[in-house]
Amino acid sequence: MNAIRDKQARAYQVGVRRSSLPRVHALARFVMVALGTAPVAVRAASSLVGPALEPASGAAVVEFSTAFTGASQTIDVSRFERGNPVLPGHYNVDIFVNDGRVARKDIEFRATQNSNDAYPCFDYATLLQMGVETGRLDPGVVNAQSACITINQISPDAMVRMDVGDLRLDVSIPQEAMLRHARGYVSQDLWDHGESAFLMGYSFNAYSLDQSYGGVRLTNGGSAIAYDGSRVQVQGAQYYLAGPGGSYVADSMGNYMLTADGRYVPVQRGTFVSAPSGGYSSHDISAFLGLNLGMNVKGWRLRSQETGQWDQRAARTRWTNINTTATHDITLWKAQLTIGDGYTQGIVFDTTPFRGITMYSDDRMLPDSQQGYAPVVRGTANTQARVEVRQNGNLLYQATVAPGSFVIDDLYATGYGGDLTVTVFEADGSVRSFLVPYSAVPMLLRPGIGRWSITDGQVHNTALRHDKPYFVEGTYQRGINNWMTLYGGVQSTYLNLYHAYLGGAAVNTPVGAFALDVTRSRTSFQGTESLSGYSTRFSYSKAIQSSGTTFALASYRYSNGNFLSLADAVVTQDMLESQQAGRLDTVHMMRARERLNVTVSQNFGNRYGQLYFNGSRNSYWNGMPSATTYQLGYSNSYRRVNFGITAGRTYTTGPMYNGSHYDSQFGINLSVPLGGPSSRRAPMLQFSATYDDALGNNDRVGVTGTFGKDSQFNYGANASYTDQSGAGSRSTASGTLSWQGPRTNLNAGYSYSGHYQQASISASGGLVAHPGGLTLSPQLDLNGAIGVVEARDAKGARVSSSGQAKVDARGYAIAANLTPYRLNDVTLDPTGTSNDVELQTTRLQTAPRAGAVVPLKFETSSGRAVLIRVSRVDGEGVPFGAQVLDPEGREIGAVGQGGQLFVRGGERGGELTVRWGDEEARQCRVNYQLPERDKGEKSLTVESMDAVCR
């Protein structure tokens, strides 16, 4: 039974086939309309199929005007007299259940005795998507290999309505026959492991640099400035100062420098680091290759991240394994199991790199409406009422509820919140409203929702020189009720080096959301004293609707002098062993004391822009310098011009500054489209001007834009001017050009200054080896989900949901960036394909698991397309509406005005039967021959010809 259900569930993404009758009939009507020969008719009503499988009453009668058809014979249109009939066959339809769209699928309609209408057949996978309570159905029907479950087998009161014109199937099912699921729910039976495959994502960059310097020194705040005015390259939070005397590294504040022998040396402001006689010049070429490798086998996802670096000056290549993991879903627990290298969750405790095993709950497996935090709305309706939930005037939710108490527990999370306005519209015309407080901090969860993680492994810090300790970590969060979430965790190393315990609570109140937790740690170093301390963390957020003010996140943390995090303890122990010291005071430790972060935004409305403020303060124990940074910004637009203004300041105090040091920054930026409002791809002119106490003035102007049929080319050109007080000025020009192709992405860049020239080229993309072969992709996310599109002979069709990806000559393409555990629509744009190929559908749905490689087969029909103008031997035209049959007797279309018919046949032609009655005199046959063409030649136009029907 399970095997059958799995097979049926997997089949929901495949088989969007339609019989040739409805497909070609619809295509013929389209061609006739395009040629101006379509019939004049009253549109027929949709067909409603209920328990009795009867068409809707009151269907309009189709009427034709012979003045437009030009036919002298009476045409039999009885099959259309009672509306738009549903003829037997397969239809690719949008399924709506109780007015909500659930899927686009291929549905088979079977013939009904004594009726013009066919009835729909539902399989088990479709019932799951529709949310039907399958446990109520006859097991014999559900388990049948070729199950055809009719609407009256689901419920005697269920009905379906098919709109053939819009290809929409409306299904009405009583609530008692439906499962109660949160919005966004996707049945676990539809989650697809996919197929076995090998994956590789790559990124390559080659970099050439010619430099000339007259020496290097550190200035205000440790900024690296050459004596000739050139800026030394900055990477991440560290300044890399390269010179003939060796390479040096200073921290982000310029306080300490790591020398070649591994010592930390204090660096004073303005210190001269490297001063070779007469300066120096250098030329270097380097290259980088990053590989993300993957293998999917039986639900396991093996992943490995590798890097390769080559440098001309060093004349060596270095390969590094960043991490290797094996992951598998634990469906029952809605969790993931990972073995190998990774990072702890970083939600309760600070994140820690490890090598070992971890299990954690995966929020992606929850429905959209259960992820994040949103309050439960409770109320009472006196009648059959309509309930609306709004936030900041925006409608978030609407439902009809029965008299009595109601509960709405599937609201989608909306960032940091904003109070909810709930309005109850009673059937008697009365209206009531009330407010539900809604603010959120990251720790808040919905009532009844839990989040957990368990990790057992070894600290994986490559900077450690000695033993890396093993540790365990466990965390748990639980939504207790509508306003409170409790959470806690524990960290402990195996060798009694470190133990930490954390407990806290998050609450949602009318004045905002708060979270407070306390961590207690104890560290026992070998051969020295132990430290025991605590750390307190406080968070707050609030959105004030009336003023448009949002306290996005305000957090504060205080730690006493003996508190260490796990990372602090491990690094300190390693330094003690390196120095063979027995006392902590011989070891430099940067331990946090206070940390405050504040983000506030103020929205003044569409016309008056937005103001924001970011601020942070960090202070440390043991006399380490403290720092305060804050930034104020304003952004707005005037007509089509966007602009922003920023101002910031950094304050640092410490012994190296003999007190304190200030660094101020100011900036303005503008962006203006260089084209009219109707221009689709107008270039964008960008200008910015900044001032920094340490780096001086920098003015930049640039142009960016796209071109190409599919906007696959991007370009940018920039010119900048820098004036540094006491260090001179310089001008720099640069340009970039990139191409987003159907198989890869390419990028090239060049920049020039009086003191350096730099050029680079790069490429990125990926490949998937699957049962159908090897397919290239311009992008590949191994941690997401991937679809392997198969569309035979549809070369050039574009995967609309995946950038520039197109079907290759073998009929395959990669649909990247699918969302795991959600129904994804994957669409094909047939523009650019041969007219000899017809896609039976342009959209499929799939619900892949994380990291899965899912096959997506788009059925195609191949054959030369031709428009035939048919006349009879006596010169009379063939009646409009006559049936067109293939040699096997299958109806493939109908004759349009002027005796025109559209067919897709063999390479050289064939025979067709035209019938407008049962008598022999009301039938004739058309033999048509197509001109020969080169083997493999594809047509981009529809061929046309004349033929006689005998």
From TrEMBL:
Pfam annotation, one family: PapC_N
Chain ranges passing through the membrane: none
Domain PapC-like C-terminal: 867-932
Keyword Transcription regulation among record annotations: no
Any GO molecular function: fimbrial usher porin activity
GO CC term, one of those recorded: cell outer membrane
Topology relative to the membrane: Multi-pass membrane protein
UniProt keywords, alphabetically: Cell outer membrane, Membrane, Signal, Transmembrane, Transmembrane beta strand, Transport
InterPro entries: Fimb_usher, FimD_plug_dom, PapC-like_C, PapC-like_C_sf, PapC_N, PapC_N_sf
Localization terms from the record: Cell outer membrane
GO biological process: pilus assembly
UniProt superkingdom: Bacteria
Domain PapC N-terminal: 67-206
Region feature Disordered, mapped onto this chain: 721-740
PANTHER family associated with the record: FIMBRIAE USHER, OUTER MEMBRANE USHER PROTEIN
Protein's name according to its UniProt entry: Fimbrial biogenesis outer membrane usher protein
Native species: Dyella solisilvae
